[in-house]
Write a structure and sequence with these properties.
The structure is a single chain. The chain is α/β, with parallel strands linked by helices. It is built from seven helices and 17 strands. The termini are far apart.
Length: about 290
């Protein structure tokens, strides 16, 4: 198995004409991006020289996949990730979450220092575990949940890569788990969720964000501790603006003393590279006493 560990991170190199040119360590990829309706800044040669290209026209397919390592490792925001190309064009990391990982780390560290004990964090729809790593590496006790057994395994491999052990791994439907967790009396100081626009669990459970998100947030609210730290929601759903996320979170956290921040998640690169919107976030944080 070919693998690469170059110690480098992520950078957006260019975007435009419905695509994005990205560097993941030493690997450069061209992938679709509907938001990038402007023209690229780099010459065509830079795009042609990409190691591989992913397209969704006439079905998902990679060009140049054979030139890539079977898997490789990068370090981003102090977190190491195993990467591998998938049939859906994903790699095992969403680098637009970098700012959220920093915020999680800072929030958890400050809370632990103040309390003198590890805070408990729940990460739902947790994918390959970037937020799990950020929280656990800052000293939190984390419960990591995803409906895909393969993704939970991928996340556990990332945990080993980062010497993280204080994680409870769960493969389950999010709503079923939240209901059972409430009955068990478990509570969390912080909850992170990045629900899919549409998803299916291993048991055939269907998730539609427009239909199910309000219930998800209500179930999460019921699991917060008596002195909660935060709830962080993010999404990659077209049409779900920061204000929509903020409104939903405001209703879910009604009656709790805190403040809400909202914004766009961005892919970024070096000087002169246009930031690329890649989803939205809304986060509630307890007001300092």
């Amino acid at each position: 198995m070919r693998s690469v560990d170059d110690g480098k991170g992520y950078a957006l190199l260019d975007s435009g004409y419905g695509r994005k040119l990205e560097r993941f360590g030493e690997v450069t990829l061209s992938r679709p991006c509907a938001q990038a309706i402007w023209k690229p800044a780099l010459p065509e040669r830079a795009w042609i020289d990409a190691d591989a290209v992913f397209d969704r026209e006439e079905g998902n397919h990679w060009e140049g996949r054979s030139r890539l390592p079977d898997h490789w490792i990068i370090e981003e925001t102090g977190i190491r990730f195993h990467l591998a190309v998938t049939d859906f064009g994903h790699l095992g990391i969403f680098p637009e979450q970098r700012a959220q990982w920093r915020w999680i780390r800072e929030t958890v560290r400050a809370a632990n220092a103040k309390r003198g004990a590890p805070c408990a964090v729940l990460n739902l729809f947790a994918y390959s575990g970037g937020s799990t790593m950020a929280a656990a590496m800052a000293g939190a006790s984390v419960c990591h949940l995803d409906a895909s057994r393969g993704m939970v395994q991928w996340a556990s491999e990332n945990a080993a890569l980062n010497d993280v052990s204080a994680v409870r791994w769960i493969v389950d439907d999010a709503h079923k788990f939240l209901v059972r967790e409430a009955k068990r009396g478990r509570r969390y100081d912080g909850i992170i969720l990045d629900p899919p626009t549409f998803g299916r669990g291993e048991g055939g459970e269907m998730y539609k964000i427009e239909r199910d998100l309000p219930e998800t947030l209500a179930l999460c609210r019921a699991l917060l501790s008596d002195a909660p730290l935060f709830m962080l929601f993010s999404a990659h759903t077209p049409g779900l603006s920061p204000q929509v996320g903020g409104n939903l979170l405001a209703q879910a956290m009604d009656g709790q003393r805190g403040e809400i921040e909202t914004g766009e998640m961005l892919l970024t690169g070096g000087a002169g590279v246009l930031p690329l919107p890649s989803g939205t976030f809304a986060r509630w944080c307890q007001l300092a006493k």
